[in-house]
């Protein structure tokens, strides 16, 4: 194809997205669109999968059976989210094995938040309330993104997220209304998860590289700073309601703008964690690689069994 | 050893409705594909029946042929009831 023809196709393509038409896997798309989507959707899938690890830590130590089944169901949903997203990503011509390889080798990123440790039961509350809360803010606009399989996966994901956040908040609410030790545990979890949750919404707008292109392709509908503001505005009153204190002494409500103003975030810490130097980066990837490698004989055995059954059928047929 | 093949999953949400495509998954054989589809796509009573089909078995039309395939229908307005102008007094038609 000549350069001019490609340019022409790109214009038709952009116009299609501007009209809110969806792009489906077999449609022509610019190579950059394909690569950007493979990167974003797979990062998203990896985040769902790695996100199970910090919570998996607490399944056997949940305080009641009710909390245990809720946490199990939540984590199972996250596995599902990862699978919907991997399946959407594979429609772009990349294989599941390539995607896993990128995660395991450290080439692919996942959300930095999952590199923090889960030290107490209250962390299950804080994660559901804050981390899933921030994820929802990020994900809702993606339900109308331009790539069909991604948009459809996000619709399913968003339907399921709401329970995650509610069960988390309820854990925090129960602890905050409990003994002084329980309340302190909830406060401590909020103290540790607040800033990482704010940073989870991505670098500030002036440091964010992909924004303009992503806006055009509807991979992004609002800027990171706008999403962060939305998150702060909705979460502060929730903390007030259960008598917990946001660990930011500079936080104040601006009567004119009707928004909360909050302090500077530690972006050095954020980039350190992104680059692999967070408290649990190594632990998370090694748990993941370990599970994959130790499961190999099971996958092989299942495949050998399937092939044997298949050849038995063929033998009967002749 | 070979990787688990890809399967397309179709779910009937309730009797009276058609099976609808909802995504794909990997499984070593059809039985496992059905079990995985149940866990991945019907955790909240989204379905009463599941179909799984090996993705490799699906033949799909190509978007490049869309004009050839679908545009001929555009100029056949006579296939629609509104094409036939009839007096307003006419009832039940
Ligand atoms: Fe999720
Ligand atoms: Fe979640």
From TrEMBL, chain A:
Tree of life domain: Bacteria
Matches recorded under Gene3D superfamilies: 1.20.1260.10
UniProt GO BP: phenylacetate catabolic process
InterPro entries named among the record's database cross-references: Aromatic_CoA_ox/epox (IPR052703), Ferritin-like (IPR012347), Ferritin-like_SF (IPR009078), PaaA (IPR011881), PaaA_PaaC (IPR007814)
Gene Ontology molecular function: any one: phenylacetyl-CoA 1,2-epoxidase activity
PANTHER family: 1,2-PHENYLACETYL-COA EPOXIDASE, SUBUNIT A (PTHR30458:SF2), PHENYLACETIC ACID DEGRADATION PROTEIN PAA (PTHR30458)
Full protein name: Ring-1,2-phenylacetyl-CoA epoxidase subunit PaaA
From TrEMBL, chain B:
Species the sequence originates in: Flavobacterium lacus
NCBIfam families to which the protein is assigned, alphabetical: PA_CoA_Oxy2
Pfam families: PaaB
InterPro entries on file: PaaB, PaaB_sf
Identification of the protein by name: Ring-1,2-phenylacetyl-CoA epoxidase subunit PaaB
